[in-house]
Amino acid sequence: MAADIPLGDRLDDDDYPAYTMGRAAEMLGTTPGFLRAIGEARLITPLRSEGGHRRYSRYQLRIAARARELVDRGTPIEAACRIVILEDQLEEAQRINAEHHHPTHTPADNPGTRPH
């Protein structure tokens, strides 16, 4: 499946599970246990390799890094995960709201309509 996608496209894909648990923990400056804990809290769900090993995407690592910031400041891990989930939901809602307030076309794009 992944072999069907050109390497350049996979490397540019924020959702491509390119990082092993060990590499992800190293990049975040944390432990594999932390990654397992945020997985158990359902903040991120790593994909599994054919051998059953956890694999993380760049997007997941950004989410995990935000949770780590909160935990480092003393927030319990479960609360940190909930905060990050809510922040992500808010960002998505704001993006959708902005799309509705800034249409991608103008009345001139529709010849049958008149500007007000």
Task: Walk me through what this model shows.
This protein has 116 residues and is mainly alpha-helical. It is 54% helix and 6% strand. The protein is built from five helices and three strands. The chain has helices spanning 7-12, 21-28, 32-40, 58-72, 77-101; strands at 19-20, 47-48, 54-56. A three-stranded antiparallel sheet has the order 1-3-2. Strand 2 and strand 3 (54-56) form a beta hairpin. Helix 4 crosses helix 5 (77-101). The longest helix is centred in the C-terminal third of the chain and has 25 residues, at 77-101.
Main β sheet profile:
3 strands, antiparallel
- Secondary-structure element string: HEHHEEHH
Count the DSSP helices: 5
Number of strands: 3
* Large-scale geometry: flat
Low-confidence stretches: none
- Proportion of strand residues: 5-15%
What topology, given as strand order, has the largest sheet? 1-3-2
Helix content: 40-55%
Assign the structural class, choosing from mainly alpha, mainly beta, alpha/beta, alpha+beta, or little secondary structure.
mainly alpha
**Radius of gyration from the alpha-carbon trace, in angstroms:** 20 Å
Average pLDDT over all residues: 86
Alpha-carbon distance between the two ends: 51 Å
